[in-house]
Amino acid sequence: MSDSITQHVSHCILCGKCLQVCPLLRATGREELGPRSKSDLCRVLAEDPAKLSETDAARLAGLCLGCGRCREVCSQGQDVPGLVAALRAAHPNFKSWLWKTWLTRARQLWSPSAKAAGLVPERFRTERLGPMLKMLAGMTGGPGLDPFLTPKTFPDTLRGEKLLLFAGCTANYVQGRWLMAALRLLDGLGAEVLPGDFACCGSGLKGAGFTDESTAMAERNVAVWRKAGRPRITVFCASCLAGLRAYDCFASEAEAAQWADSLLPLSVAVRGIEFVIADNVPERLGYHHPCHAGADDPDRAFLREVLGDRLIRATDAQCCGFGGVMRLAAPGLTEPVNRQCWDALEGADVVLSGCSACLAQLSATAPEDVEVGHWLEIIR
């Protein structure tokens, strides 16, 4: 039993709070897939490693969406996603290697893979592989949503401020329109965007058990921030923001606090902008709340303020079912989670979100008559 696994094991008081919030358990009804079962099995591993085979441990490691909802409600500080990540690190397999390669070589792989997936004939798109191929094909960017919000007036809250923009891998390599929309908004706000060669946030690698690679990315991103003079960093991907907030590679507690204070969700920065809504606004809009956005989801608050009662549907407890490496390890278990998400969004013609991973999953599984896009896409 590795130290990295043992350090995440804590005493469970069987309160059941984690069972109430786990989207995988809710969708499947299988308690052995819930956080408490994973915690119990890891405790057994810590006490007597011979009681559980490496094969069982490796299988357990793949059966977690990594949403973090259980960690948020645990009164004992149990970190089940941390346990799962440590197990994945201790028992790597081909699928985890494939996931690592996909994330660390995004610049080289994403565009060619998307083009190749788009060439696969329809008859080969089986029920099992179809959503994955659609997700890959969608990574060419596509036409995007028809924008219907136009900025009318800008506040002076950021005027003259120098800041960094953390766009994330999807915006940098696939969805350039998100990056351009963000830059237009920041320009209207009067901010000066400093150059910064950020790496991936590393959260996807951390959850898959690749701690060294994730730490290296974190250290590089913190070094970019230091070199720029420690300015504020604006972010428009909920998963990236959560990943950046989880960094622990600082020289002191004071620097860690300064980093935390520097992270600025773009949806918070634009709250003072007055928008004009065009006539082409969809009648029925939905919003998907990403698991990693937390209870105080700034993207949802921004959209409710601007769109009002046009936002007719929103998820809350539902997960999109992406699950990182679990999407490769056990796609059959992610599908019922995804179906519950779409049940909550039923009736919406357009679904918005602020998480690149959620958007990839929802775009690949959306009903034929429903469009999906980042909230930045609706702004001219």
From TrEMBL:
<dbReference type="InterPro" id="IPR009051">
    <property type="entry name" value="Helical_ferredxn"/>
</dbReference>
<keyword id="KW-0411">Iron-sulfur</keyword>
<keyword id="KW-0004">4Fe-4S</keyword>
<dbReference type="InterPro" id="IPR017900">
    <property type="entry name" value="4Fe4S_Fe_S_CS"/>
</dbReference>
<dbReference type="InterPro" id="IPR004017">
    <property type="entry name" value="Cys_rich_dom"/>
</dbReference>
<feature type="domain" description="4Fe-4S ferredoxin-type">
    <location>
        <begin position="3"/>
        <end position="33"/>
    </location>
</feature>
<dbReference type="Pfam" id="PF13183">
    <property type="entry name" value="Fer4_8"/>
</dbReference>
<keyword id="KW-0408">Iron</keyword>
<dbReference type="InterPro" id="IPR017896">
    <property type="entry name" value="4Fe4S_Fe-S-bd"/>
</dbReference>
<keyword id="KW-0479">Metal-binding</keyword>
<protein>
    <submittedName>
        <fullName>(Fe-S)-binding protein</fullName>
    </submittedName>
</protein>
<dbReference type="InterPro" id="IPR018136">
    <property type="entry name" value="Aconitase_4Fe-4S_BS"/>
</dbReference>
<dbReference type="Pfam" id="PF02754">
    <property type="entry name" value="CCG"/>
</dbReference>
<keyword id="KW-0677">Repeat</keyword>
